[in-house]
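Bug #77: duplicate submission created two jobs. Keeping one. Sequence:
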Amino acid sequence: PKSGFHFSGSCYSQGMSFLRSVATVGGYTLASRILGFVRDLLIAASLGAGPVADAFFVALQAPNLFRRLFAEGAFSAAFVPLFSAELARTGRNPAILFAEQALSVLLASLFILVCLVEIAMPLAMLIFAPGFRDEPQTFHLAVLFTRLTFPYLLFVSLVSLMGGVLNSFGRFAAAAATPILFNLVLIAALVVVAPYTPNPGYALAGGVTIAGLAQFLWLLASCRRTGVSFRLRRPKLTPAVGKLLRLMLPAAIGAGAAQVNQVISTAMASLLVPGSISYLFYADRITQLPLGVIGVALGTALLPLLSRQIAAGEGEAAADSQNRSLELGMLLILPAAAALLAVPDSLVAVLFQRGAFGAFQTVATAHALMAYAVGLPAFVLIKVLVPGFYARHDTATPVRIALISIAANIGLNIALMRPLGHTGLALAVSLAAWLQTGLLGFVLLRRGHWRPDRPLVRRLVRTLGCALAMVAVLLGLAHLLQGDLTAHGPWRYGAMGLMIAVGGGVFMGLAQWSGAARLQEITTQLRRRPAG
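Kept job's structure:
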């Protein structure tokens, strides 16, 4: 029987490459998320959770939505399987020609879209944040900031295409490193430029588009080092590009339901008390650290692997790859979710409570963080399950499931926002994600494309037990270190570092002892090079 993190069949060497690809993407994403926290610490200290912060976070929401849909969702889901198939069937040059044709059509279409949205931004703001209508100053700032951030959509689209090309060639590092540039530019804008602007929101909003330009130039150079030089061609809707566009639209809905739900929650939060959008943003930023490192890394590396295995007719190997990805994802995300549920107040206080961000904002953000943590495992499961459809060129089924999830989220928002406020909005996103996860798994099971094997079930149960034991330890430590966690100065960082180290050590030790994970197996396979 299969066990551990072994990949079986003729794609064994691909499994080893997959684990190394996950480590590569996850490592760069971790570095990016750490820089993102530095960025968010500076934003929290400068803006707090007031009208300017709400306006900027709405302005950041629009390009961030498209970044997640394109860089981590629709474009990769549609483009990578088509480009990989073209590369295998016709060779390098015809595949690059297809990429150039896709780039020209995408660039022309999005340029028109950006121009139209820039002109109609006051009307668009009624969709992004309808509650700002009653706050003229906040509404004006949100319109201005979003006009500054929205051109980022052009650059992130080009970055997504070039990243898809590099990923198809098995080069994941350059594309995974692009978010690091984004955070560095925004940190520089906040530190260097913000003192010379009316408020820091102006510097941050302008920095978003400049960061997109930096990411584009970085990946353009990376592609040239790989031997891929893009030519800008006249836009032409070829059959291959038409197929790409037909796959992209449903893929955007299917892979981006969580992001669409987040936008809906932000719009609903604009109807609540000022600061509600900011509480949701700061809580979401914390959950994005484990989600980005684990979920995005698994989804990015899994799609090319499944595409190759399914194209080769190796259905059993594809199912095994998906099971091992689920094992690895839950091994990493369950302790993270448990920790966020156990000590949210301490974590938010240490990370954000300074300057304009006070104790009241800490409590409000911690409530939202707990609600998001409920859905954290579901967000990762979606990242692992959706490639099982896209690798088979089926984007219609995830769309139908995503639409159900979005409808459920809207209903839950309406039901929960009055009694629970912004916390109810966060909880609605989590519950909708679990519904989407259940439906995706059910359809894959019914079609025979995936079936959880015995090692997967056994290790999931053991991983959950280890996570619960870790929670007990964290609660005890939080009680003992309560004074240090709320103190000012470096003591609270040391106390939080101690909690993370002890909690992580307890979980890893129990996982090794119980057989939830064999760390030696994982490290051995990460170091092993594929045969041939």
